[in-house]
Design goal:
Elements lengths: L24 E14 L2 E8 L2 E7 L6 H4 L7 E10 L14 E12 L16 H6 L1 H4 L3 H23 L3 E2 L16 E4 L7 E4 L4 H9 L4 E10 L10 E11 L3 H19 L11 E3 H7 L14 E2 L1 H4 L7 H8 L3 E7 L7 H13 L6 E8 L2 E5 L8 H11 L6 E7 L1 H18 L10 E5 L4 E4 L4 E4 L10 H7 L9 E6 L2 E8 L4 H10 L4 H14 L7 E4 L3 H9 L29 H6 L12
Helix pairs in contact: 4-6, 4-16, 5-15, 13-14, 14-15
């Protein structure tokens, strides 16, 4: 038998050596993560994808002179004998921490220039530097770990979907422009001068057509492209979602399929953090009242209540609120448990915060026990009779030692202010649960809303959703009272996904669009493929598309999607590493029959 030769670069990875390997001749390759000179003895922490191994070079080693020239992030191959670390020098934080490599030979495989940002340590650097040198940024332990987590999460999602009988399909990347709430990225066609493809904002129409074609359970880890501004929880340019569609299903069937997938992935990768077992369903109107937002963070126990009726009573003399109520406004109360013991600065800071949000401030009442009677104190308490104070305290669920803050404005503005105050109060008083994943469904979204700018009825969420009550509701109800089979899934205040039971009936679709002022010609022009398909026998169907990026962001404990995406763009949708977007050459423009008309730069 021919003896096998050792691998040219390594006999082990940098995460493989253990005590049992002591005495072996070992060959490792990797990056010089950290180099320490301790009294003439060099300690090189050698890193690769798999881990870290301490390597030792002393003056007796034939490799000592060459090792003395090594610098951080040089790629080297080291060979020598594995040995047990001396007692007291072990590193129990890493798997290889009880062994080291005594180096006898060394080869430089790839020297490195001076680094624009360090790989060792967790020093934060400006976004521009990190993205321009992303290949260095990705060598850092936290980011490397996040990217591996992302791949594991995607594998887990895929396995869970297949276990439920879903089949993975791929839908086109080059398609037609479709108004779905954001701007399209357009791709010019060389063979069809003056015409453009669009990159899909989502596979929405295609996945519905897959259902019409007779397939039953579709999923895809789908790339989506939207020309919209960046946010911490939204990447500019592109993102990925777990795209799902099912035939012959109700809203509850979709929930039953999706809940175990999301619950399972959060349990598997959540490092033991508790996960909601049965996701509660919260109606949109209740979410806006109780939490001031349609993506509530349920780790915060505070619930807002409406106290407009209490402030509207004749016995209340606080004109600032009564005038707003008379003009159609509302008053929302936000409880603050234990706030009576806070210093005056706590209340002043909340008022300053409210003013920074464009509000006049936050009124408040502090409740104390005076001889067994709950009594309100504070700037506006004198305008509120004792019986009304008691009613407010009861409705807000507060007692002696607590406080109540008030947001007063028109309904939408009051909800937004109260929702923000709820978050701030919960954080400032340290009331929110930590290290837990709280998930819920938001359901019963309104089908339509009134567009103040255009003075017309418009779709509020998704024009392709089935209205609750079907055609009859569209024909007999006030459009603003019609609810849709639309739903969002929310985790810790982050919207993971929107979904809906689809409007698969052409007659219902025509009426739904007509209410919003769109004729059948709009359906034919903008959504012709799907609209025509529905006229040839379409099954009831529905789906959802949880955002992969946001799921990974939550699991990794990050607050910005940039930390879990391999090669993200910056806030201006620029790829600083590859230099995109870039100007096209004159030849490319001629082939595409395009003439540029850029805006004139101000002098």
């Amino acid at each position: 038998m021919t003896e096998s030769k050792p691998h040219i670069y390594r006999s082990h990875t940098c995460g493989a050596l253990r005590e049992a390997d002591a005495g072996q001749i070992v060959r490792l390759s990797g990056w010089c993560h950290r180099i320490r000179d301790l009294g003439g003895v060099l300690f090189i922490d050698l890193r690769d994808h798999y881990g870290l191994t301490q390597c030792v070079v002393d003056p007796e080693s034939p490799a000592f002179t060459e090792a003395s020239s090594l610098r951080s992030e040089w790629v080297v191959m080291l060979e020598g004998k594995a040995r047990i670390r001396p007692t007291g020098t072990e590193n129990n934080d890493i798997p290889t921490g009880k062994v080291e490599l005594y180096v006898t030979s060394l080869e430089v495989l790839g020297p490195a220039m001076e680094l624009p940002l360090p790989v060792f340590g967790n020093v934060d650097y400006p976004e521009e530097t990190r993205l321009k040198y992303r290949f260095l940024d990705l060598r850092r332990e936290r980011l490397h770990k996040n990217i591996m987590l992302r791949g594991q999460v995607i594998d887990d999602l895929r396995a869970r979907m297949k276990a439920q009988g879903f089949f993975e399909f791929q839908t086109p990347i080059l398609t037609a422009s479709s108004p779905e709430g954001a701007r399209d990225y357009l791709v010019p066609s060389r063979v069809h001068p003056g015409k453009f493809y669009a990159l899909p904002q989502a596979p929405q129409q295609f996945k519905q057509l897959i259902m019409v074609a007779g397939f039953d359970r579709y999923f895809q880890i789908a790339p989506c492209f939207r020309d919209e501004d960046a946010r911490a929880d939204r990447s500019p340019g592109e993102f990925y979602q777990l795209d799902i569609e099912m035939s012959f299903v109700t809203q509850e069937d979709v929930f039953g399929a999706v809940e175990p997938v999301l619950r399972g992935v959060f349990e598997t990768f959540g490092s033991g953090r508790p996960v909601t077992q049965k996701f509660p369903m919260i109606a949109y109107k209740d979410a806006m009242l109780k939490y001031g937002v349609d993506k509530p963070d349920l780790r915060n126990p505070l619930q807002i209540c409406d106290v407009s009726a209490e402030f509207a009573q004749d016995s209340v003399s606080f004109k600032a609120f009564k005038n707003v109520i008379a003009a159609g406004g509302v008053v929302r109360a936000i409880p603050a448990p234990g706030a009576a013991g806070q210093p005056r600065s706590f209340f002043d800071k909340l008022n300053d915060w409210a003013r920074s949000e464009g509000a006049p401030g936050l009124g408040y009442v502090i409740f104390e026990d005076e001889g067994g009677v709950l009594t309100g104190k504070g700037p506006i308490a004198k305008f509120i009779p004792a019986d009304v104070q008691a009613a407010i305290a009861s409705k807000a669920g507060v007692k002696a030692g607590d406080a109540v803050f008030f947001a007063c404005d028109q309904p939408a503005k009051a909800a937004r202010l109260a929702g923000g105050a709820r978050i701030k109060i919960g954080n400032d008083l340290d009331l929110c649960e930590k290290d837990v994943f709280k998930l819920c469904w938001i359901v019963d979204f309104p089908m339509y809303e009134y567009n103040e700018e255009d003075k017309k009825i418009d779709f509020s969420h998704n024009p392709f959703s089935m209205p609750q009550g079907g055609l009859e509701a569209l024909e007999t109800k006030d459009p603003l009272d019609i609810l849709a089979y639309q739903y969002d899934i929310v985790c810790n205040g982050v919207e993971l996904s929107s979904g809906a039971i689809r409007n698969h009936r052409p007659d219902v679709m025509r009426k739904a669009f007509a209410i919003a002022g769109y004729g059948e010609e709009v359906l034919e022009e903008k959504f012709g493929g799907m609209y025509r398909a529905f006229q040839y026998g379409a099954p009831p169907h529905g789906g959802i598309a949880p955002g992969v990026d946001r799921i990974v962001m939550l699991l990794a404990g990050e607050e910005n999607l940039r930390e879990i995406v391999l090669f993200p763009m910056n806030q201006r949708a620029e790829d600083l590493l590859m230099g995109a977007p870039a100007e096209a050459t004159p030849k490319q423009l001629r082939e595409l029959h395009i003439r540029l008309n850029p805006p004139i730069k101000a002098v």
